[in-house]
């Protein structure tokens, strides 16, 4: 990072738990910082000493390869040390509470905690406890229940803004763009976080999904709802697809994966409704032939799935860097 | 460590398996070395190159978060490389003997082995085999069956001595202090290791627990036994609580967790029997409301649980450093 | 490495998938490079900055301690960063294809993929896809089904050549040496890879095993087949034993482990048929008393098992180094 990155004096957020109250200037700081780190990642030596000897604890109570590896790599490229907490072999199975586990990691020296949990609110609870104890631990929500997944939405935002300006990504680039989010909105923490950041950025957000997966109350987010795909795709600049959990079928929320694909699956043909330059995102892992046709996923001119993964490392480096730079951060 | 740490010429112990024959000068070297490393941990850059490129193998045949993470962090802060041996996915499930596994790790280049096993004596057996083969591998017992857990007792000793002298912790500070160890003494390797170090340091050690968990033969350690809590607590300077395994109830060794807490659980009220400055330890993970009341555990003026965890990293750095500094150690 | 290692201009192989078409000059480059790295491993500081900040992803779909740890240590000693992919907790359990997992790791920044899979050909498929996408990812086959295990055969070759010239190991040293490979040839990917490298090196290779484990078609490799042990051992310079899977008994391919040992187990007594200086190898983990007598395994004058493990780290450092040095390799 060094010279290319100014100290972000405007940044005061130690925890990153939700995007609900992120301002445009805050989103822009994340985008600019991530762009600087992406330059680092394009060098031959992709490592900076920013967090040398500082400890990032990964607490993934819910399994994940993609997000955990992405954070692990981001932390390594900042020269941090990493503690991986594996719930299966942990003190939790001996009856310890999550808060006591977090306190133990803090007492060992962890300054950052990246937390995924199947229950909404767990990262907030841990962050509140860390603050109450007067620690400087910085907590990042890496996905909590059906609530939020801020780092995913921020990497989506970064990927989208870079479409229009690779070196100067900023929110205003998305103003007025029509973005369709398609699929299982109801159960998606990715969708919720994206709703906050994209509407804050001024995008024209449309949601589409079957009624069982898109309840009417989502209108409160200031977005347009569609229970059919076509009006959502019409003239869209961007289509964001969401992962469909196979268990939704057992819950009778969708008739079958095949029928879902027929109604809401994205294909080259359906994209003809959109702007000619339309691009498609998916947070992964993709069920090929369900949310997206295989041909579309593999079409590098349209699919941004690989760029999202690549952006993820730069964005997560930026988040850890920013969290660690607040006046009262640990160290 | 550099200048602040003298080479401990007096240190000749390559393996750390038991505290039974540790002398006061040896304990004092551990305490002083740990104090030096704790200064490192209070710096912004918490890392030293002491064990750079040397390999520490963690062999945890019994699951553990706390102790394994503590050793992993200690090794990382000494700049060592770490091999984590996960029994579940290992050659052991293919029928390899533990000794052959240890030999393989040695042949790969491991110079330190940190071993936990549910059978007493396994670390000793591996250490003896490593010596027989003429290797310079240093073996540390991280908990073997019901036998010993030396690094836990040493971090307890360090935590206690630092109460009286944070910068110059040494055994003599505990001379004559009344220390009550309360709970499931019978099944506790932590208690056994502590008995050795605390009596060597000259403390006045009292044990308390129900008769099923405190057999009379423990008197041989030169300590006072109590089958009721009150006389153990009377005028005590320190109360060490032990973890109660929930399965003791199924074994009919205790009637119920609730009744155990009523008879031997430590609370603010009960501590009125002790010295006014009394402090409470627990090796973790704690069953809240069983060994300790929740209020007591969270009372930072009395509970030393977090300090124990923090001390653990410094003490384990000291142990790895000392083991690696013996004249015949690997490297 | 630095000065002692010339840039291997003659090396053009980015993937290492099979030894079938390895030439003698290529094998010799591996041997010489490994010898240079072994010198590094004999220094006090066993680390070189060769792959600093480059990412090695370990994808072990089939469990392994030995090979995975060996690669992990090799990568660490080259200063690489490592991503460990654990199939149990992975996106694969969410239905993602292996190719999509590999693409995700590439998009995150992995430049090397070390792949083990129970299906033959998986590493080849991933390598082909990485090439098709125009990535510079280098793929190493760490064992695929019953097909090949090139790094094991290369470490065996290195161990053998070093018997005759520790500092200048090269293929010609094995010309005309009688090498007996004994055991479950049929199910051994180690045997297949060794057949290619040893015959290329000009050794006189003999295979021995019961008819159920040594099908006649192995004659096509230009080797001599024996369904009894004695003629294979007669005047042999080297005996390579293979691991016997216990499940072969349930498949009725061998009558019992005991009977197998009586017919094909290697003991000091049986080695009297061989050259006086005969040495014995085994890829590990060993079933003591089955493939080898316990006494023989522990006889450091005859058994090369520990040297094989030690060689493994140097050879794998050499392979990662060479794969990363091709003109079009990532970075």
Automatic annotation (TrEMBL), chains A, B, C:
GO terms for cellular component: cytosol. PROSITE patterns: CARBAMOYLTRANSFERASE. GO terms for biological process: 'de novo' pyrimidine nucleobase biosynthetic process; 'de novo' UMP biosynthetic process; amino acid metabolic process. Carbamoyl phosphate binds at residues 66-67, 116, 149, 152, 284-285. This is Aspartate carbamoyltransferase. Catalyzes the condensation of carbamoyl phosphate and aspartate to form carbamoyl aspartate and inorganic phosphate, the committed step in the de novo pyrimidine nucleotide biosynthesis pathway. Heterododecamer (2C3:3R2) of six catalytic PyrB chains organized as two trimers (C3), and six regulatory PyrI chains organized as three dimers (R2). L-aspartate binds at residues 94, 189, 243. It comes from the Bacteria. Keywords: Pyrimidine biosynthesis, Transferase. PANTHER family: ASPARTATE CARBAMOYLTRANSFERASE, ORNITHINE CARBAMOYLTRANSFERASE, MITOCHONDRIAL. Residues 14-161 form the Aspartate/ornithine carbamoyltransferase carbamoyl-P binding domain. The gene is pyrB. Gene3D superfamilies: Aspartate/ornithine carbamoyltransferase. It comes from Parathermosynechococcus lividus PCC 6715. It catalyses: carbamoyl phosphate + L-aspartate = N-carbamoyl-L-aspartate + phosphate + H(+). Residues 176-323 form the Aspartate/ornithine carbamoyltransferase Asp/Orn-binding domain. Its EC number is 2.1.3.2. InterPro entries: Asp/Orn_carbamoyltranf_P-bd, Asp/Orn_carbamoylTrfase, Asp/Orn_carbamoylTrfase_sf, Asp_carbamoyltransf, Asp_carbamoyltransf_Asp/Orn-bd. Belongs to the aspartate/ornithine carbamoyltransferase superfamily. ATCase family. Pathway: Pyrimidine metabolism; UMP biosynthesis via de novo pathway; (S)-dihydroorotate from bicarbonate: step 2/3.
């Amino acid at each position: 990072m060094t010279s290319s990155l100014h100290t972000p004096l405007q940044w005061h957020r130690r925890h990153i738990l939700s995007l609900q109250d992120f301002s445009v200037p805050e989103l822009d700081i994340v985008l600019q910082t991530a762009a600087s780190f992406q330059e680092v990642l394009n060098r031959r030596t992709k490592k900076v000493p920013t967090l040398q000897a500082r400890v990032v604890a990964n607490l993934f109570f819910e399994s994940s390869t993609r997000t955990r590896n992405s954070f692990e790599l981001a932390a390594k490229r900042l020269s941090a040390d990493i503690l991986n907490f594996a719930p299966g072999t942990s003190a939790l199975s001996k009856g310890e509470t999550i808060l006591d586990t977090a306190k133990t990691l803090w007492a060992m020296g962890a300054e950052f905690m990246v937390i995924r949990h199947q229950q909404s609110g767990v990262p907030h609870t841990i962050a509140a406890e860390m603050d109450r104890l007067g620690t400087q631990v910085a907590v990042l929500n890496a996905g909590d229940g059906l609530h939020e997944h801020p780092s995913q939405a921020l990497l989506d935002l970064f990927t989208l803004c870079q479409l229009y300006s690779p070196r100067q990504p900023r929110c205003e680039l998305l103003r007025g763009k029509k973005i369709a989010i398609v699929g299982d909105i109801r159960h998606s923490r990715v969708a919720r976080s994206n709703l906050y950041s994209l509407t804050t950025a001024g995008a024209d957000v449309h949601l589409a999904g079957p009624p069982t997966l898109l309840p009417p109350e989502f209108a409160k987010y200031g977005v347009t709802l569609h229970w059919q795909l076509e009006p959502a795709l019409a003239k869209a600049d961007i289509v964001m697809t969401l992962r469909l959990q196979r268990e939704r079928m057992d819950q009778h929320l969708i008739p079958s994966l095949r029928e879902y694909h027929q109604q809401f699956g994205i294909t080259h043909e359906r994209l003809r409704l959109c702007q000619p330059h339309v691009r498609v995102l998916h947070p992964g892992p993709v069920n090929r032939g369900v949310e997206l046709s295989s041909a579309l996923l593999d079409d590098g001119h349209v699919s941004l799935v690989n760029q999202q993964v690549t952006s993820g490392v730069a964005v997560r480096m930026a988040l850890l860097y920013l969290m660690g730079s607040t006046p009262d951060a640990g160290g």
